Amino acid sequence: MKVLIATEKPFAPVASKAIAEVIEEAGMTPVFLEKYASKDELLAAVGDADALIIRSDKVDNDVLNAANKLKIVVRAGAGYDNVDLDSATNHGVSVQNTPGQNSNAVAELVFGMAVMAIRNMFNGTSGTELKDKTLGIQAFGQVGRNVARIAKGFGMEITALDPYCPDEAMEQAGVKPVHSVEDLYRNNQVVSIHIPATAETRGSIGKDLLLLMPKNGLVINTARKEVIDEAGLAEALRERTDLKYVADVAPDSAAEMKAEFGDRVFFTPKKMGAQTAEANINAGIAAAKQVVAFLKDGVDRFRVNK
Ligand code: 3PG
Fold first, then answer.
1. How far is CA 230 from the centre of its chain?
2. Cβ contact 283:274 at 8 Å
3. pTM, to two decimals
4. Could you read off the pLDDT of 4-37 as tens digits, one per residue?
5. Same structural domain for residues 232 and 119?
6. H/E stretch holding 292
7. Which secondary-structure segment (H or E) carries 95?
8. How far is the CA of 272 from the centre of ligand 1 (A)?
Protein backbone atom coordinates (compact mmCIF):
# COMPACT_ATOMS: atom_id res chain seq x y z
CA MET A 1 0.00 0.00 0.00
CA LYS A 2 1.28 3.43 -0.92
CA VAL A 3 1.24 6.26 1.60
CA LEU A 4 1.89 9.59 -0.10
CA ILE A 5 3.34 12.33 2.10
CA ALA A 6 2.65 15.48 0.09
CA THR A 7 4.07 18.57 1.75
CA GLU A 8 4.59 21.78 -0.16
CA LYS A 9 6.27 22.92 3.06
CA PRO A 10 8.30 19.84 4.08
CA PHE A 11 8.61 18.37 7.55
CA ALA A 12 12.02 18.59 9.26
CA PRO A 13 14.21 15.74 7.88
CA VAL A 14 14.23 14.02 11.29
CA ALA A 15 10.42 13.92 11.21
CA SER A 16 10.27 12.61 7.62
CA LYS A 17 12.62 9.79 8.63
CA ALA A 18 10.43 8.86 11.61
CA ILE A 19 7.26 8.97 9.48
CA ALA A 20 8.85 6.66 6.91
CA GLU A 21 9.86 4.23 9.66
CA VAL A 22 6.32 3.95 11.07
CA ILE A 23 4.91 3.31 7.59
CA GLU A 24 7.60 0.80 6.60
CA GLU A 25 7.28 -1.11 9.87
CA ALA A 26 3.62 -1.64 9.00
CA GLY A 27 4.66 -3.13 5.65
CA MET A 28 3.53 -0.12 3.64
CA THR A 29 5.45 2.12 1.25
CA PRO A 30 6.05 5.79 2.05
CA VAL A 31 6.46 8.10 -0.94
CA PHE A 32 7.45 11.73 -0.38
CA LEU A 33 6.37 14.60 -2.61
CA GLU A 34 8.02 17.65 -1.07
CA LYS A 35 8.17 21.30 -2.15
CA TYR A 36 6.03 20.54 -5.17
CA ALA A 37 5.51 23.57 -7.37
CA SER A 38 2.23 22.78 -9.10
CA LYS A 39 -1.05 21.05 -8.40
CA ASP A 40 -0.38 18.78 -11.39
CA GLU A 41 2.49 17.14 -9.50
CA LEU A 42 0.12 16.33 -6.65
CA LEU A 43 -2.56 15.06 -9.04
CA ALA A 44 -0.04 12.71 -10.66
CA ALA A 45 1.41 11.46 -7.38
CA VAL A 46 -1.93 10.80 -5.68
CA GLY A 47 -3.25 8.60 -8.52
CA ASP A 48 -2.22 5.27 -6.94
CA ALA A 49 -1.98 6.31 -3.27
CA ASP A 50 -4.00 4.43 -0.64
CA ALA A 51 -3.37 7.11 1.98
CA LEU A 52 -2.31 10.74 1.95
CA ILE A 53 -0.55 12.74 4.66
CA ILE A 54 -0.55 16.52 4.22
CA ARG A 55 0.03 19.78 6.08
CA SER A 56 -1.67 22.94 4.74
CA ASP A 57 -1.68 21.36 1.29
CA LYS A 58 -4.96 21.83 -0.56
CA VAL A 59 -6.99 18.69 -1.09
CA ASP A 60 -9.91 19.73 -3.27
CA ASN A 61 -12.35 17.88 -5.49
CA ASP A 62 -9.76 17.64 -8.32
CA VAL A 63 -7.26 15.91 -6.03
CA LEU A 64 -9.93 13.53 -4.73
CA ASN A 65 -11.09 12.75 -8.28
CA ALA A 66 -7.51 11.93 -9.28
CA ALA A 67 -7.00 9.68 -6.24
CA ASN A 68 -8.54 6.44 -7.47
CA LYS A 69 -7.44 4.26 -4.55
CA LEU A 70 -7.47 6.80 -1.73
CA LYS A 71 -9.09 5.76 1.57
CA ILE A 72 -7.73 8.27 4.06
CA VAL A 73 -6.26 11.78 4.25
CA VAL A 74 -4.52 12.80 7.46
CA ARG A 75 -3.80 16.45 7.95
CA ALA A 76 -0.69 16.42 10.17
CA GLY A 77 -1.83 19.35 12.24
CA ALA A 78 -4.95 20.95 13.61
CA GLY A 79 -6.80 23.01 10.98
CA TYR A 80 -8.45 21.16 8.11
CA ASP A 81 -9.96 24.08 6.20
CA ASN A 82 -7.62 23.07 3.32
CA VAL A 83 -9.55 19.84 2.70
CA ASP A 84 -12.88 19.64 0.88
CA LEU A 85 -14.69 17.55 3.48
CA ASP A 86 -17.92 17.08 1.52
CA SER A 87 -16.04 15.87 -1.54
CA ALA A 88 -13.99 13.49 0.64
CA THR A 89 -17.20 12.07 2.11
CA ASN A 90 -18.65 11.65 -1.39
CA HIS A 91 -15.48 9.82 -2.42
CA GLY A 92 -15.69 7.55 0.65
CA VAL A 93 -12.46 8.99 2.05
CA SER A 94 -11.87 9.48 5.78
CA VAL A 95 -10.32 12.83 6.71
CA GLN A 96 -8.50 13.05 10.02
CA ASN A 97 -6.37 15.61 11.83
CA THR A 98 -3.85 15.27 14.67
CA PRO A 99 -5.18 17.67 17.30
CA GLY A 100 -2.73 19.04 19.86
CA GLN A 101 0.40 17.63 18.28
CA ASN A 102 1.83 20.94 17.09
CA SER A 103 0.10 23.34 19.47
CA ASN A 104 3.04 24.12 21.76
CA ALA A 105 5.10 25.26 18.77
CA VAL A 106 2.37 27.67 17.70
CA ALA A 107 1.92 28.95 21.26
CA GLU A 108 5.65 29.62 21.65
CA LEU A 109 5.63 31.63 18.43
CA VAL A 110 2.83 33.79 19.85
CA PHE A 111 5.19 34.96 22.57
CA GLY A 112 8.15 35.33 20.23
CA MET A 113 6.05 37.72 18.15
CA ALA A 114 4.49 39.42 21.20
CA VAL A 115 7.85 40.35 22.71
CA MET A 116 9.14 41.48 19.34
CA ALA A 117 6.10 43.72 18.82
CA ILE A 118 6.16 45.39 22.22
CA ARG A 119 9.94 45.88 21.99
CA ASN A 120 9.33 47.82 18.78
CA MET A 121 10.58 45.07 16.48
CA PHE A 122 13.91 45.05 18.35
CA ASN A 123 14.84 48.42 16.87
CA GLY A 124 16.68 49.58 19.99
CA THR A 125 14.04 52.05 21.26
CA SER A 126 12.34 51.70 24.65
CA GLY A 127 9.44 49.25 24.57
CA THR A 128 7.13 47.70 27.17
CA GLU A 129 6.78 44.34 28.97
CA LEU A 130 4.22 41.56 28.95
CA LYS A 131 4.18 41.32 32.77
CA ASP A 132 0.89 42.66 34.20
CA LYS A 133 -0.56 43.21 30.73
CA THR A 134 -4.02 41.79 30.01
CA LEU A 135 -4.19 38.95 27.50
CA GLY A 136 -7.37 37.84 25.75
CA ILE A 137 -7.27 34.40 24.15
CA GLN A 138 -9.81 33.98 21.37
CA ALA A 139 -10.68 30.25 21.51
CA PHE A 140 -9.50 28.00 24.30
CA GLY A 141 -8.54 24.92 22.29
CA GLN A 142 -5.19 23.17 22.32
CA VAL A 143 -3.19 26.21 21.20
CA GLY A 144 -5.15 28.61 23.42
CA ARG A 145 -4.45 26.43 26.47
CA ASN A 146 -0.74 26.39 25.75
CA VAL A 147 -0.79 30.16 25.28
CA ALA A 148 -2.43 30.50 28.72
CA ARG A 149 0.18 28.23 30.31
CA ILE A 150 3.05 30.27 28.93
CA ALA A 151 1.33 33.62 29.66
CA LYS A 152 1.25 32.72 33.36
CA GLY A 153 5.03 32.54 33.33
CA PHE A 154 5.13 36.06 31.89
CA GLY A 155 2.84 37.26 34.71
CA MET A 156 -0.04 38.28 32.45
CA GLU A 157 -3.69 38.57 33.45
CA ILE A 158 -5.48 36.06 31.27
CA THR A 159 -9.04 35.87 29.96
CA ALA A 160 -10.44 33.68 27.20
CA LEU A 161 -13.51 33.48 25.01
CA ASP A 162 -14.75 30.12 23.81
CA PRO A 163 -18.44 29.30 23.48
CA TYR A 164 -17.55 25.60 23.13
CA CYS A 165 -15.51 25.40 26.34
CA PRO A 166 -17.11 25.31 29.81
CA ASP A 167 -16.16 28.17 32.14
CA GLU A 168 -14.89 25.66 34.72
CA ALA A 169 -12.22 24.34 32.33
CA MET A 170 -10.86 27.87 31.94
CA GLU A 171 -11.08 28.60 35.64
CA GLN A 172 -9.17 25.42 36.46
CA ALA A 173 -6.42 26.68 34.16
CA GLY A 174 -6.35 30.03 36.00
CA VAL A 175 -8.07 31.83 33.14
CA LYS A 176 -11.08 34.15 33.48
CA PRO A 177 -13.87 33.33 31.02
CA VAL A 178 -15.51 36.12 29.01
CA HIS A 179 -18.67 35.65 27.03
CA SER A 180 -18.63 38.29 24.32
CA VAL A 181 -16.09 38.97 21.65
CA GLU A 182 -16.57 42.71 22.23
CA ASP A 183 -15.52 42.30 25.88
CA LEU A 184 -12.51 40.27 24.82
CA TYR A 185 -11.23 43.07 22.58
CA ARG A 186 -12.39 45.90 24.86
CA ASN A 187 -10.64 44.63 27.97
CA ASN A 188 -7.35 43.24 26.72
CA GLN A 189 -4.14 44.98 25.69
CA VAL A 190 -3.03 41.86 23.84
CA VAL A 191 -5.41 39.56 21.94
CA SER A 192 -4.21 36.24 20.56
CA ILE A 193 -6.43 34.65 17.90
CA HIS A 194 -6.91 30.86 17.82
CA ILE A 195 -10.23 30.35 16.05
CA PRO A 196 -10.50 28.08 13.01
CA ALA A 197 -11.53 29.42 9.59
CA THR A 198 -15.17 28.44 9.18
CA ALA A 199 -18.20 29.95 7.45
CA GLU A 200 -19.02 31.57 10.79
CA THR A 201 -15.57 33.04 11.56
CA ARG A 202 -14.42 34.22 8.10
CA GLY A 203 -13.95 38.01 8.09
CA SER A 204 -15.31 38.21 11.62
CA ILE A 205 -12.50 40.34 13.09
CA GLY A 206 -12.60 43.84 11.66
CA LYS A 207 -12.64 47.52 12.38
CA ASP A 208 -15.41 47.59 14.99
CA LEU A 209 -13.71 45.04 17.25
CA LEU A 210 -10.21 46.41 16.79
CA LEU A 211 -11.26 49.95 17.65
CA LEU A 212 -12.57 48.70 21.01
CA MET A 213 -9.05 47.77 22.13
CA PRO A 214 -7.32 49.69 24.91
CA LYS A 215 -4.46 52.06 24.10
CA ASN A 216 -1.43 50.35 22.52
CA GLY A 217 -3.49 47.27 21.70
CA LEU A 218 -1.68 44.39 20.03
CA VAL A 219 -3.38 41.64 18.02
CA ILE A 220 -1.49 38.44 17.29
CA ASN A 221 -2.88 36.08 14.66
CA THR A 222 -1.34 32.64 14.40
CA ALA A 223 -4.64 31.08 13.30
CA ARG A 224 -5.86 31.80 9.76
CA LYS A 225 -5.74 34.94 7.60
CA GLU A 226 -9.35 34.37 6.55
CA VAL A 227 -10.76 35.26 9.97
CA ILE A 228 -9.64 38.87 9.47
CA ASP A 229 -11.59 41.48 7.54
CA GLU A 230 -8.50 42.97 5.91
CA ALA A 231 -10.07 46.24 4.81
CA GLY A 232 -11.39 46.72 8.35
CA LEU A 233 -8.00 45.94 9.84
CA ALA A 234 -6.34 48.54 7.60
CA GLU A 235 -8.95 51.14 8.55
CA ALA A 236 -8.48 50.44 12.25
CA LEU A 237 -4.68 50.73 11.96
CA ARG A 238 -5.13 54.02 10.06
CA GLU A 239 -7.53 55.46 12.63
CA ARG A 240 -5.66 54.24 15.72
CA THR A 241 -1.95 54.79 15.26
CA ASP A 242 -1.28 53.08 18.61
CA LEU A 243 -2.54 49.66 17.42
CA LYS A 244 -0.26 46.86 16.18
CA TYR A 245 -1.01 43.67 14.25
CA VAL A 246 1.42 40.75 13.93
CA ALA A 247 0.59 37.54 12.13
CA ASP A 248 2.03 34.18 11.20
CA VAL A 249 -0.67 34.04 8.57
CA ALA A 250 0.06 37.04 6.34
CA PRO A 251 -2.95 38.86 4.91
CA ASP A 252 -3.42 38.99 1.13
CA SER A 253 -2.63 42.70 1.39
CA ALA A 254 0.62 42.12 3.33
CA ALA A 255 2.80 44.22 1.01
CA GLU A 256 0.39 47.18 1.06
CA MET A 257 0.03 46.97 4.85
CA LYS A 258 3.77 46.80 5.36
CA ALA A 259 4.22 49.83 3.09
CA GLU A 260 1.55 51.83 4.90
CA PHE A 261 2.04 50.76 8.52
CA GLY A 262 5.73 49.85 8.66
CA ASP A 263 6.83 48.37 11.97
CA ARG A 264 3.32 48.42 13.41
CA VAL A 265 2.70 45.23 11.45
CA PHE A 266 4.76 42.08 11.03
CA PHE A 267 4.18 38.96 8.94
CA THR A 268 6.27 35.81 8.80
CA PRO A 269 7.39 35.07 5.22
CA LYS A 270 5.76 31.63 5.37
CA LYS A 271 3.43 30.18 8.00
CA MET A 272 5.89 28.85 10.55
CA GLY A 273 3.95 28.35 13.78
CA ALA A 274 4.28 24.58 13.47
CA GLN A 275 7.72 24.70 11.84
CA THR A 276 9.74 23.08 14.60
CA ALA A 277 11.40 19.68 14.63
CA GLU A 278 9.33 18.75 17.69
CA ALA A 279 5.99 19.73 16.15
CA ASN A 280 6.86 18.00 12.88
CA ILE A 281 7.85 14.83 14.71
CA ASN A 282 4.75 14.83 16.93
CA ALA A 283 2.24 15.63 14.19
CA GLY A 284 4.02 13.56 11.52
CA ILE A 285 4.33 10.40 13.59
CA ALA A 286 0.75 10.77 14.83
CA ALA A 287 -0.41 11.08 11.21
CA ALA A 288 1.58 8.01 10.13
CA LYS A 289 0.22 5.97 13.05
CA GLN A 290 -3.33 7.05 12.26
CA VAL A 291 -2.90 5.99 8.63
CA VAL A 292 -1.63 2.57 9.71
CA ALA A 293 -4.38 2.11 12.32
CA PHE A 294 -7.03 3.04 9.79
CA LEU A 295 -5.76 0.89 6.93
CA LYS A 296 -5.06 -2.11 9.18
CA ASP A 297 -7.90 -1.93 11.72
CA GLY A 298 -10.34 0.71 10.46
CA VAL A 299 -9.63 3.01 13.45
CA ASP A 300 -11.38 6.29 12.63
CA ARG A 301 -11.16 8.09 15.97
CA PHE A 302 -9.88 11.41 14.66
CA ARG A 303 -12.23 11.60 11.69
CA VAL A 304 -13.48 15.14 10.97
CA ASN A 305 -15.75 14.57 7.94
CA LYS A 306 -19.16 12.90 7.99
C1 3PG B 1 -2.26 23.71 11.87
O2 3PG B 1 -3.43 23.93 11.52
O3 3PG B 1 -1.92 22.63 12.38
C4 3PG B 1 -1.24 24.80 11.73
O5 3PG B 1 -1.77 25.90 11.08
C6 3PG B 1 0.06 24.34 11.08
O7 3PG B 1 0.02 24.29 9.69
P8 3PG B 1 1.26 23.75 8.83
O9 3PG B 1 1.39 22.29 9.08
O10 3PG B 1 0.92 24.08 7.41
O11 3PG B 1 2.48 24.49 9.28
1. 18
2. yes
3. 0.97
4. 999 999 999 999 999 999 999 999 999 999 999 9
5. yes
6. helix 277-297
7. strand 94-97
8. 8
